Amino acid sequence: MAGQSIERREVLRILAVASAAATFPGFSKWSFACGHIGKKLAQIKPAVYQPLFFTSPEYATIERLTDIIIPADDTPGAREAGVAEFIDLMVSRDSNLQPDFRNGLRWLDMHSKKTSGQPFMKLNPGQQTALLEPLAYKNKFRPGEEAGRKFFARVREYTMLGFYTSEIGLKELDFPGLIHSYAVSPSCPHKDDPEHRHLPPAPALSKS
Amino acid sequence: MIPNIVIFRPHPRFRNHKSLMPKQIYDVIVIGTGAGGGMAIKTLCEAGLKVCALNSGRRLDPEKDFRNHRMSYEMKYRGFGDPKTRMKDTPGFLDSEYNQGAWEHDIAFTTAPGTRWMWPRCSAVGGKTNFWGRSSARFGDIDFRAATLDGYDVDWPVAYDEMAPYYTRVEKMIGVSSTVQNRPSNPDGVYLPPFNFRCLDMILRHGCQKVGVPYLPDRLAQLTEDHNGHPACHYCGDCTFGCEVGAFFSSPWFLLPAAGASGNLELKTNAIAKNILVDDNGHASGVAYLDRESRQEYEIQGRAVVVAASCIESARIMLNSKSRQWPTGIANSSGQLGRNLCDHLYATTASGYLPQLLGQPNFPDNITGNTIAWMPRWQNLEDAHEEKFIRGYSVYPDGGCAEFPWYYDKIEGFGSSCKQEIKRRYPTPVSFTIQAPTLPSSKNFVEIDPEAKDSFGIPQARIHFEWGDNELRMFQHGKQMSADVFNSAGAVLEYAADEPEMPGFSLHETGTCRMGNDATKFVTNRFGQTHDVPNLFVCDASVFLNCTDKTTTLSILAFTLRTNEYLVEQFRRANL
């Protein structure tokens, strides 16, 4: 595909963004920004994050939940992407969300104590997963856990929002926009197969 | 490069001393700087008339205010905007962190009991053209003569042959990328090369062919080639957040610079038009406006006034312009001012994914930020009463690798398997949005709230609106057709909306100052000149009889060009 990267644009972005961004909450986990291809900026030493809204124990639980929802496997997960910091920032600015999270966290610990005799963070990873599965999968739903399901859906929503808007998340998806620009509008490379029934397995898309 | 617009700012010493300001009578005062205002300003200034333009908000600086090239993680709230200050009940792409600061927050409106209405307004210079969707189809005789064809409401007072030359000139001015399509509902124009089809377009077109639905390149006011000194698109993909190089039409990039260069424009920013002033004869003599920052009221004088503040705001300004001669609002002897508010019903008629593309490498599908293709009206073409509804709708397909995987909520659960499925599905999502016109109805109108005033002390607009049966039948029809297309394209259908989006969502409201030959039934004549007040003109979608199945901007430009050449002619003949 005919393509070209635009130097000017990259330069503009770096200028516009680099100075301001390192000070944003939600970024202490990873070196800010400008993770441009072929460029490594100095890593910022992660500071201990001071939550804006959550108490320390609440924050630890939120971070653990994000880690369970999008774990690190072959690629980094929500913890590495600092998703809990993003959630804390958004909740701190949204009074409608605050009760959802605070009451939900309380429900989670009460539920955990009721079923396992321990607060959620004291459970081992297998117990934590077992507790969350009935909140997350329709065929495992149980009556009486509506509040828990609502809370889990909320945490999951904000984990997705936080992860797939982070640099790590967009790399995970290989988001093709913005980074590249093109001389002509990119077109389908499979003109002889309009139905796309016979695509080659995972061919590489060249972005020169 | 920043467009060269002349900014008029009184010296601070004089700001609070009206009497010290030089008394000037402009040829024309134009309220608004969007598609209508911008085209009016350009046409008038280039004809040598002295113009004062009022814009309710500030001027944008493309390099600072258009954040379209930023990655989400380069913004504090990841592009979503600060939940505390963002407008509520607004589509995510409006008033987001990419274009915050350009949207109206201070001028409130009310709704009648039972009415839901969202009214996002871009108060920045250039208005909504800064961030618009760029779809640019001509209206045709199937629209102008719709009443003759199906017996509902009245025909437009213009015919396509009369409008065609104006459409051609506008298309040549702004650059529209598309193809000649020979569709009965869509007259063809003058086009730059189209955007190329992506994988998802190829698959959907194949599916559409099997069920007899057209799937064609949309008409986009977005440049596939350099055009009149404006650079071709570089396909970065965040167009709806503004273009810092001006590769798609917007008033500040395409219209206002020429007006500024003429030396005939004085642009007052943060100037909120309050009412139109009249002389002893009831003719327009000027405009009263409030400075947004100082809240000081000013008056300026002009020989003619062009109202181009957008459909509802234009009606509000005119309804608020009460005088001895015009006790119910200026140019409202017909009682039709504010009436016949129309809007496009928008709804997701189908969304899901293309399994053919699962796990395929990513493709820059978002190169236009939204539509590359459209499914232009195919209903009621031969016989106006073929379907269970009259007139017709269009559908816009969208999909592919977007900046955010919104389909995540279709994949349940958590953990690695969920993460991998999100990745596998990334190139596959597709969705269809219906654009269905409401029919003019006596139930849908704008009036002045008898009590509520906005923070500037100006009486607020009160909106009455509900969907009618015809557009709801189109919505149901659209869902069935979308399901058929999904099925024949081999797509997996996961969702279709039960309810349309909130009224106002499309930002395509029309009506309120409809044009027609009968002064007792219409606010303006066929040239957009008000029947009652010969030196008052309306230049936005409020003059349209209804909203058709097409978007409004191209037609606002074409009608405004015509209106303002007529206005210039009136000056030459010394009628104004």
Describe it:
The complex is a heterodimer of chains A (208) and B (576). With 208 residues, chain A is mainly α. Chain A has one domain (8-172). Chain A has helices at 7-21, 56-69, 83-92, 98-116, 125-136, 146-163, 167-173. In chain A, α2 (56-69) packs across α3 (83-92) and α3 (83-92) crosses α6. Helices cover 22% and strands 18% of the residues of chain B. Chain B is globular. Chains A and B meet through α1, α3, α5, α6 and α7 of A and α7 and α11 of B.
- What coarse outline of chain A follows from CA principal-axis ratios? globular
- The arrangement of helices and strands of chain A along the chain is HHHHHHH
Helix content estimate of chain B: 10-25%
Number of strands of chain A: 0
Number of separate helices of chain A: 7
Write down the oligomeric state. heterodimer
What is the SS-derived class of chain B? Answer: alpha/beta
How is the secondary structure organized here?
The complex is a heterodimer of chains A (208) and B (576).
Chain A: H1 7-21, H2 56-69, H3 83-92, H4 98-116, H5 125-136, H6 146-163, H7 167-173
Chain B: H1 12-15, E1 25-31, H2 35-46, E2 51-54, H3 62-65, E3 110-111, H4 141-144, H5 146-150, H6 160-174, H7 199-211, E4 216-217, H8 251-254, H9 256-261, E5 265-268, E6 271-278, E7 284-291, E8 297-307, H10 311-319, E9 339-342, E10 344-353, E11 373-374, E12 394-399, H11 416-425, E13 429-437, E14 445-453, E15 459-464, H12 469-489, E16 492-495, E17 510-512, E18 536-538, H13 553-572
Parallel strand pairs in B: 1-2, 1-8, 2-5, 3-15, 8-18
Antiparallel strand pairs in B: 4-11, 6-7, 7-8, 9-17, 10-13, 10-16, 12-13, 14-15
Helix pairs in contact in B: 2-13, 6-13, 7-12
What are the salient characteristics of this protein?
heterodimer, A: 208 residues, mainly alpha, 7 helices, disordered C terminus, B: alpha/beta, 18 strands, disordered N terminus
Write a brief structural summary:
The complex is a heterodimer of chains A (208) and B (576). By secondary structure, chain A is an all-alpha fold.
